[in-house]
Amino acid sequence: QDNSFEQFIINYCNEKLQQIFIELTLKEEQEEYIREGIEWTHIEYFNNAIICDLIENNQTGILAMLDEECLRPGTVTDDTFLEKLNQVCATHQHFESRLSKCSRFLNDTSLPHSCFRIQHYAGKVMYQVEGFVDKNNDLLYRDLSQAMWKANHSLIKALFPEGNPAKINLKRPPTAGSQFKASVATLMKNLQTKNPNYIRCIKPNDKKAAHIFNEALVCHQIRYLGLLENVRVRRAGYAFRQPYEPCLERYKMLCKQTWPHWRGPARAGVEVLFNELGIPEEEFSFGRSKIFIRNPRTLFKLEDLRKQRLEDLATLIEKIYRGWKCRTRFLLMKKCQIVIASWYRRYA
Asked: Where does the Myosin motor domain start and stop, copy by copy (predicted)?
């Protein structure tokens, strides 16, 4: 309930991760449609770059204002930092403060005078400014570093390399906020060079108990994890895509022309299969190497037909086997009867 500097930088990191998640998801989807020659329908989604800019802008960002307050001469307090935010960020649509120039917040009693509120991607979060300046400074005085570096213990000496007289830097050490910002930038640069896979974990309740499903908590997580935008992108495009070869191999039993073996290109076999099943043309599109199915209902229909066909084939195999077994037994009995009859006639 009480958010300070630590939660602020954590939420900043979450905003950056959410931003790259949306970009990579949409980018991957668009690139595949272009690569396969499929028409792409543009989806409007909320771009949280405006929130990231509010926090990390080098001139008017909250972190920049905090660093400026920490480095400027004179009396510096958390209140002076909040006053500076009110001057610079007062008109920003995602920044709220009781002291801001935006009059719509003056009567908001839920927002104390010593707090500011940011409308994050996941929702509004209120921050207590108390401790922001001290926590951002995170200063370790130079003489303390030098004293620790002179220790005889090798581990302690290694933990304070800045105390080495040969490497003394007269510049003021970077603030915690600027260090975290640089780390996040490095992380984003690293992620953009990768092909990440996302696993979203949903917490059903805060009690860590079984058989309890908190609908409000789950809906909140779905919203701030960006799952709604991801679903919208999928629904606007095609919900399912698969290369022609495995698709034909899986569903070829549904068409007499493709079962049991199809002689020809896999794409032509899939076209024959879908035409035979009478699937509407608007429900699928043929790419260069994949079949794209728009609605999950079409895929469920294919799976239901396949399941029924498997049951029919199993029944057919069972029928043929039982017929073979009965005929084999009949022929054996007939042969035995002939042998017995011949020996009986010879005896008689």
From this structure: 1-307
CATH topology of domain 3-136+173-191: Methane Monooxygenase Hydroxylase; Chain G, domain 1 (1.20.58)
In the block, residue with structure tokens 């409308």: 119
Which residue in this structure is represented by tokens 């405006």?
Answer: 50
Single out the residue of 253, 250, 294, 255 nearest to residue 271, CA to CA. 255
Helix and strand numbers, DSSP H then E, in the chain: 13, 6
Tokens representing 188?
A: 């984003």
User: What's the token pair of residue 256?
Assistant: 């007499």
In terms of C-beta distances under 8 Å and separation of at least 24 residues, what long-range contacts does 297-306 make, across chains too?
A: 299/239, 299/240, 302/251, 302/254, 302/277, 305/251, 305/254, 305/277, 306/250, 306/251, 306/253, 306/254
- Positive or negative CA dihedral for 169, 174, 180, 186? negative
User: How many angstroms separate the CA atoms of 155 and 160, rounded?
Assistant: 9
Find the angle CA(200)-CA(10)-CA(43) to the nearest 5 degrees: 50
Over the chain (348 residues), the average pLDDT of each successive run of 10 is 86 87 75 80 75 88 86 78 84 78 54 83 85 78 76 83 69 79 90 79 88 90 77 75 89 87 88 88 86 86 90 92 95 93 86
- Residue 103: per-residue pLDDT: 44
* Spatial distance between the Cα atoms of 255 and 258, rounded to a whole number of angstroms: 5
Question: Which DSSP symbol is given to 252?
Answer: G
Give every CB contact of residue 126 below 8 A, 6+ residues apart in sequence.
3, 111, 115, 116, 117
CATH topology of domain 240-347: Alpha-Beta Plaits (3.30.70)
Show the tokens assigned to 311. 């049951």
Q: Is the Cβ–Cβ distance between 133 and 77 less than 8 Å? A: yes
